[in-house]
Amino acid sequence: MQNLKKSDMVRSLGVLLFENFSNHCLANAIEPFRAANAIARQTLYEWRHFSQDGGTVTSSSGLPVETVSLSDVAPRGNYLFVMPSYGYSELADPKMCKTLRAARNRFSTLVGMDTGAWLFAKAGLLDGRKATIHWDEFNTFMESFPDIEAVEDRYVIEDDLATCGGASTAFELTLELIRREHSSMFALEIAALFMHGDKLELYDPLRRWSTDALVRRATALMRRKLETPLPIPELARQLRSDQRTLEQHFQRKMNMTPSTVYRGIRLREARRLVELTTLSIAEISERCGYRNTSAMIRAFRQEFGDPPGCYRSVR
């Protein structure tokens, strides 16, 4: 398993804001991209804030954000995140519908956050498509747009359109976009930075955890057991699962074995400690479950392409 491959390609994001937008939703959508840049130590994503007419747009909690007019600038990019949040029904006027239809030709993917699916539906962008919306509005959305396949999923991603519900699902959708563009391991590293999925709940087969849920719980346990790594059979036992089931879920979600993911988590913690602390390489090896420093250095080089000292020298 290799670390993120460096690329000259920078993905461009637009964020379309409206008065009284949710800054919680905005942060959850954009912060994973900022973290991706920081972890990769290169610009993978860049973004600009837009509104219908430009100027200062203020969130529901009073946060002002300077924007430029989406219609005047007519930007192009990979994603346009649309964040209406509150008062969405009044926002879906003919002018906004025209704006969104035009944006569809300039951005590879339109992303409706929170109640963004309502604006997409009014603009005729979701007919015959699958979509979700904030669950408080789900029934009204389903009844108002019978030609749309409304689903109670946390997010829906298709080739050129994506929708999700509230702020927490915005974070999950962004992580999934990053995972698809880069790797499962890279997305897991970003999630760990925000302690997303770190709540440890032991797996119970009778509850029929989803693949996502079991993998989240397994990786949370892995992060708690870095210095003394658990054998995979013991990891499965503590999750009240069995090794075969655990391996099947990891293959389905991450296309990797649990042991490969565990190794990646340990080595990314080693890289973090190399970059951010003055601990010796020997002590970092111990903290990350390697009793032999040379073995850790070999594994580190295999994972990231360079020895630990190269990461320390750039501090």
UniProtKB/TrEMBL annotation:
User: Which residue ranges does the record assign to the HTH araC/xylS-type domain?
Assistant: 216-314
- Top-rank taxon: Bacteria
**Molecular function (GO) terms listed?**
DNA-binding transcription factor activity; sequence-specific DNA binding
- What are the record keywords, sorted? Transcription, Transcription regulation
For the keyword Transcription regulation, the answer is yes
Q: What's one Pfam family the UniProt record gives for this protein?
A: DJ-1_PfpI
Q: Which PANTHER family match?
A: ARAC-FAMILY TRANSCRIPTIONAL REGULATOR, HTH-TYPE TRANSCRIPTIONAL REGULATOR RV1931C
Q: What is this protein called?
A: Carnitine catabolism transcriptional activator
Species this protein is from: Roseibium album
